[in-house]
Write a structure and sequence with these properties.
Number of strands: 25
Oligomer: single chain
Radius of gyration: 25 Å
Helix content: 10-25%
Shape: globular
Distance between the termini: 37 Å
Strand content: 15-25%
Largest sheet: 10 strands, mixed
Structural class: alpha/beta
Number of helices: 8
């Protein structure tokens, strides 16, 4: 029987002007203790949720928003789906997305949204639609864990690593910079409680520090978590396992044997959650389905063998990030799949694991969905199974104790020289913010190839441009630099960059708080690394006051000397808000003599409309 959470009202004392907030279970930031997840009031938190796919595909938006979704001429809104999820008793969404989704200005594919049913989504980018979905979750008491599900938008299996070896775009730096963008966007939002670092890294190893650096998932997860925790230290950091360890192979993402030999220790303690995925015979065959004692053998041969010991020894909380089944008697392996499903359901109930079902949408050819093919009615057999493992709901985000204020910017994130650069005026490219990698800059290597002016990882050289000084070179796609600036008055401005390139140039853009200010700015080839040109002025709108601008390198190879801002008109209107804290996180640029770079996302422009998509989950390795 589903329990209903009783939310206490606000208590006020006649002798004080300030209300006393009654906290509900699940309020505030979450953390861990032993094998439990706790809320900000140290109440034990359990969640029972769903995976809502779509943002990870080339639709670039959750599935089910297109017209005639039921084949009867009807369409649905995000809000109607969220209302249905809440009414069914689900209290969390694992929200998959791809690295490609993070590209500046990324829009949903044409035809994927019926704007008659979703007028509020008209003209919004994919990330802005994600904002709207998360806001809708918050008002309904549904929490969100963001899932970096794949590098490239799509649905086919990837290579099982967190990057593509030899690819200039899908690098570790691309992955981490995308997470930094997402964390900056949602830090302090009480609806977003965690980050699932990468989905099913099955081709990885789990090794001691520094061993097998090209495959060591533990070390990569530590580097990514460090970057995330510098921005959103209150988030749960959810880490999946590998596909095998010392010759023992299990479900992709569910092999945590390496954790016993080489524990992962986060910089911000009490935030680690270990995630597993578990499926039945309908998804792929495994030897434990054919044991004489099946299904009684499953705990010994599968669950405890690969991950249950984490829970039993209180090493970390276990989250069942994916499980699911068609549970259809007409399926060829139903005689094996159904006993597995019932046994695993009972195991979840006994151990009180938190879980998210794969998937809400009916498009998965492996498991189907909670929704039937009409995207409206519910699979009654699945919901009957889940009734006694549904946990109590949460209050609307922020309805209990007010969330704590956002964390301060990482130490050292301050303007170079101590004073914000003045706008209007000229900003020297080499004077990016202090704070180092991930705070003042992001760079794909850690070497100042010229060894001049500053001692961090950005390559700075003496320039022969008019006026002398220094320039920044060796720029690579995905790198960025942060600048704390002081804008004299709100209004319209232009910016012109001083650039040189011995190749064909490239592209860059300026952004603030994750919002692009300039669009893509083309940098031409100039005939030499010290052959300087002023680029045509580009228009942008700025708020008044101290704020952080990020210069992102999207593609190509070029050097930069400075950027000059000039006022065009003054306005008392409402330009985009400043990014917030003075010299806060970020920034990275490459090094001297060439480069290019693409902030968060890929540079490809191809769009694939996936309406009748049959989502295929990656298959596990043979055991």
């Amino acid at each position: 029987m589903k329990t209903v959470l009783i939310v206490l009202g606000v208590l006020a004392s006649a002798s004080t002007a300030h209300p006393v907030w009654a906290q509900s279970v699940g309020d505030g930031a979450w953390h861990t203790s032993g094998n439990q997840i706790l809320d900000s009031g140290n109440n034990v938190v359990h969640f029972s949720g769903l995976n809502w796919s779509g943002f990870e595909t080339a639709n670039y938006v959750v599935h089910g928003l297109w017209g005639n979704v039921d084949g009867q001429g009807h369409s649905r809104s995000i809000g109607s789906y969220l209302d249905q999820m809440k009414s069914l008793g689900f209290n969390l969404i694992r929200l998959p997305f791809s690295g490609d989704l993070c590209a500046s200005g990324r829009m949903p594919a044409a035809g994927t949204i019926d704007f008659t049913a979703n007028p509020d989504l008209q003209g919004l980018s994919s990330l802005q639609i994600m904002d709207a979905l998360i806001q809708g979750c918050g008002t309904r008491g549904i929490r969100v864990i963001l899932d970096y599900h794949r590098m490239q938008a799509g649905f086919a299996s990837e290579n099982g690593l967190w990057y593509i070896p030899g690819d200039p775009t899908y690098t570790e730096a691309f992955w981490i910079s995308n997470w930094q963008l997402i964390a900056t966007r949602y830090k302090g939002n009480p609806t977003v409680v965690g980050a699932d670092l990468f989905n099913e890294p099955h081709a990885t190893t789990w090794d001691a520090d520094g061993v097998n650096p090209t495959t060591n998932w533990k070390d990569a997860a530590k580097r990514c978590s460090d970057a995330l925790q510098a921005i959103a230290p209150q988030w749960l950091i959810c880490v999946q396992g590998t596909g095998q360890y010392n010759g023992l192979a299990g479900w992709w993402g569910a092999v945590h044997l390496g954790f016993l030999d080489h524990p992962l220790t986060l910089t911000v303690a009490h935030q680690l959650v270990l995630q597993i995925h578990e499926y039945g015979r309908d998804v792929s065959d495994q030897p434990w389905y054919h044991a004489a004692t099946f299904p009684a053998n499953l705990e010994a041969d599968d669950w405890n063998k690969f991950w249950e010991f984490i829970h039993t020894q209180s090493l970390a909380p276990i989250w069942v990030g994916e499980w699911g089944s068609k549970d259809d008697p007409t399926e060829p392996y139903y005689s094996l799949d159904h006993p597995w499903l019932q046994a695993f359901h009972d195991f979840i109930k006994t151990k009180q694991f938190s879980w998210t079902w794969w998937t809400w949408s009916p498009l998965s050819s492996d498991t189907g969905g909670i929704l039937n093919a009409d995207f409206t009615t519910v699979n009654a057999a699945k919901m009957a199974l889940l009734q006694d493992v549904l946990y109590p709901g949460f209050a609307a985000s922020g309805s209990g104790a007010p969330p704590p204020p956002p964390p301060p910017p990482p130490a050292g994130g301050s303007p170079y020289g101590g004073t914000p650069a003045a706008i209007p005026g000229t900003v020297q490219i080499e004077n990016y913010d202090l704070g180092g990698l991930g705070v003042g800059y992001f760079n794909t290597d850690t070497v100042n190839h010229f060894g001049q002016y500053r001692t961090d990882g950005v390559s700075i050289e003496t320039t022969s441009d008019t006026g002398g000084g220094f320039d920044v070179g060796w720029i690579s796609p995905g790198e960025w630099l942060n600048y704390t600036v002081s804008v004299a008055s709100a209004g319209s401005y232009t910016v012109s960059f001083r650039a040189a390139s011995a190749t064909t140039g490239g592209t860059l853009h300026l952004e603030s708080g994750g919002t692009t200010l300039t669009g893509s700015v083309a940098v031409p080839g100039t005939g030499g690394w010290q052959t300087w040109e002023s680029l045509p002025p580009v228009s942008l709108t700025l708020a008044a006051g101290t704020q952080t601008l990020r210069l992102v390198f999207d593609s190509g190879s070029f050097n930069l000397n400075d950027m000059t801002f000039a006022a065009t008109t003054s306005s008392s209107g409402s330009p985009p808000p400043p990014s917030g804290s003075g010299g806060s996180p970020s920034g990275s640029s490459g090094s001297g003599g060439g480069g290019g770079g693409g902030g968060c996302g890929c540079t490809g422009l191809e769009v694939l409309l996936v309406l009748g998509l049959a989502l295929r989950r990656p298959k596990p390795q043979a055991a």
